Amino acid sequence: MPLGGAALLGDGGRMGNVIAFVPATGGTGSTTLAAAVAVRAAAAGRSTVAVDLDRLSGRLDVVLGLEQEEGWRWPDLAEVCGVVDGRRLIRQLPTVRGASALTFGAADAAVDAGAGGFGQVGGVREPGRALEPGRALEPDGVLGPGQAAYRLEEVGEWLERACDVVAGLREAADIVVLDCPRDERVLEAMADEVDVVVLTVGTDVAQVASAAAAVPLVRLALDRVRLRPSSASAGPRVPPLEPWVVLRGGRVDEQLHDLLMDHLDVPVVGAVADDRHVRADLSAGRPPGARARGSVVEMADRLLLRLVSQLDAA
Question: Which InterPro entries match (predicted)?
């Protein structure tokens, strides 16, 4: 099925809202919060897609409980060229609780770049080989569902394709949730698409110090693209995009909240306390946000409300 070419706009031609999650350090629950936002947005009746952009340690499918579900993953889009038809792509993705997800799939699906040919989709097939989208070679030579062979490629090449995919999804869904790595190249690549960047920050001394270094880098990565005259965004030059900070820790001192706001000059949306139900839910295959209570759900709902309110006021 070809996915390239002109993408379809959503109802009334209005593009969806894109919210990106970036961890200031590891262990701050950025992926968990991103997953919860996707699930809660879908529960509120919004068409939602969660996108894993962490090539090295992406695990969004595991957090969402989708690792065994059939559907397309990133390797299935290896031959995509140009902005995708988001609606057609969404129909091929696995879903959970009404939210679709584009992830990398199982790490053991990766093969050396020299293996060639496998995982080609978008209507392109190797001559004489009838490969199905979402299938890859298993050890016995049989194609397994949802495990297209991962083609190693240069990061710039992948990011160019990822931008086209996200642009197409934005035109087809109400909410697009990006689970990003700590990599300024990813933020720069997505800067023209995102409406909000959420930076998750831990509360111990080392994590706060990392946040102090991360905030200026996030600003720089976004502004380098959004404020340049050649930005791909149509219309007037967009204003600077300030990251929203979410604190993550067992206890969050009020002084720390004020310190971050004053010292880093960023809005602190709030704090996510330890939620004993999250780990149990993940073990049981239930995604974050499936329960209608808990600190993670409360923060997800707060972020969604803030996102919609900000864009309505723009």
Answer: P-loop_NTPase, ParA/MinD_ATPase
Residue type, 41: A
Tell me the average pLDDT across 238-252: 81
SS3 content of the chain, % helix, strand, coil (to 5): 40, 15, 45
Asked if residue 2 belongs to a domain, the reply is: no
pTM exceeding 0.85: no
The answer as to whether 4 is a domain residue is no
Within-domain flag for 5: no
pLDDT digits (tens, 9 = 90+) for 60-109: 999 999 988 999 999 999 888 899 999 999 999 999 999 999 999 764 33
Other C-beta atoms closer than 10 Å to the C-beta of 115 total 14
Q: Cα(271)–Cα(291) distance, rounded to whole angstroms?
A: 18
Quick check: 174 and 48 in contact, CB under 8 A? yes
3 lies in some domain: no
Which residue has tokens 């080989």? 129
Nearest residue to 121 (alpha-carbon basis) of 106, 109, 136? 136
Q: Are strands 196-202 and 99-102 parallel, antiparallel or unpaired?
A: unpaired
Paired tokens of 93:
């993705």
Pairing relationship of beta strands 175-179 and 143-145 according to DSSP bridges: unpaired
List Cα–Cα distances, 30 to 34, 142, 272, 296, in angstroms: 6, 36, 11, 11
Number of separate domains in the chain: 1
Q: Is the CB of residue 107 less than 8 Å from the CB of residue 300?
A: no
Give me the phi and psi of 23, to 5 degrees please.
Answer: -85, 135
Report how far residue 113's alpha carbon sits from residue 87's, in angstroms, rounded to the nearest whole number: 30
Looking up residue 283, the CATH number of its domain turns out to be 3.40.50.300
Strands (E) across 115-174 are located at 135-137, 143-145
Strands 196-202 and 244-248: parallel
Q: Determine the structural domain holding residue 163 and report its residue range.
A: 11-313
